[in-house]
Amino acid sequence: MGMVTAASSPTVTIQTSSRGSITATANSSTQYNCTSQNFSCVQLNTLAIMDAILNADGTFTLAFYEPLPFSSNDVIEGVVTSVPNSVTNQFTIVATDSVFAGSGSLLNGQLKLGDQILVTLNAPNPFQIISKGLLIPTGSAFENSNSVASILPGQTIAFPALSFVAQSGTAPGTTTAKDIALRFTRITTSLATASLPDFSGNATGFPPFFGIAINQQFRTTSGRLSLDGVSILTSISAGSTFSTSALYVGPPVAPQFAAQTVRAH
Predict the structure, then answer these.
(1) N or C: which end of the chain has fewer CB within 10 A?
(2) What is the pLDDT of residue 137?
(3) Third-level CATH fold of 184-264
(4) Could you tell me the fold of the domain covering 75-183?
């Protein structure tokens, strides 16, 4: 996730806040999640996410590209760690990523990964899901909601920061937001059932703040599932530990998770 600082087909450069500048070259296998479905959706000075493959010579091949639906360039990503308060429109996150504006940034030098931040929603717009081309179960309480009650502990969200006060000691930082988008949550647990297109993970491996008490199914998308440690997902044995990066769309839909990556331990 970062700012597009150079774009000349087939090469794009994205400036990130924690991984420096990354340049990748598109090819015929590159996938795009945008209206044009090709390199023309890569625009200078816009925010985007990309997946890149590290080649043997140290260069990167662009595997996937998606513009972010934000006009502001100061963006915070974080995992929700508290039950949102519907009276104050507030909840707490722990920062997992960010994008800094090229000039006049509120966040640069102030926000660190792992910081706790109290978020206040201010006249929020309908929430969005940054799907990265995954099949998302429809009908979740999150998508198109503008209520803080639709945000769940364990969900990872991204938003442009309208204001920001840095964490000081044990006192959380504070920020305000109105545009909320769902991002990928990282989960490590043990496998309950290995099957396709949906597999399941044991509830006992989820962090307690998720509040999940029953095994959870994960939806996969053909052509968009990345595997590490195995060549096919169904070769992972029940009870084995795995990690996944998945969209936690939440109830009332099932499955509540859409997985992009699975790593067998």
Answers:
(1) C
(2) 82
(3) OB fold (Dihydrolipoamide Acetyltransferase, E2P) (2.40.50)
(4) OB fold (Dihydrolipoamide Acetyltransferase, E2P) (2.40.50)
Residue 155 and residue 182: Cα distance in Å, rounded? 7
Give the domain ranges of the chain: 2-67, 75-183, 184-264
18 pLDDT above the threshold of 90: no
Q: What share of the chain is helix, strand, coil (3-state, %, to 5)?
A: 5, 45, 50
> How many angstroms separate the CA atoms of 190 and 33, rounded?
31
pLDDT of 109 higher than 90: no
Q: What pLDDT is recorded for position 187?
A: 96
**225 and 187 in contact (C-beta within 8 Å)?**
no
DSSP class of residue 64? E
Task: Please report which confidence band the pLDDT of residue 180 belongs to, taking 50, 70 and 90 as the band edges.
Answer: very high
Which residues face 80 on adjacent strands? 93
CA distance 157 to 180: 7
Structure-block tokens of residue 120: 């206040």
Residues 6+ apart with CB under 8 A from 71: 160
Report the pLDDT averaged over residues 203-227: 94
CB 259 within 8 A of CB 246: yes
Residue where the block lists tokens 């970062």: 2
Determine contact, residues 127/145, Cβ cutoff 8 Å.
yes
Identical topology for domains 75-183 and 184-264: yes
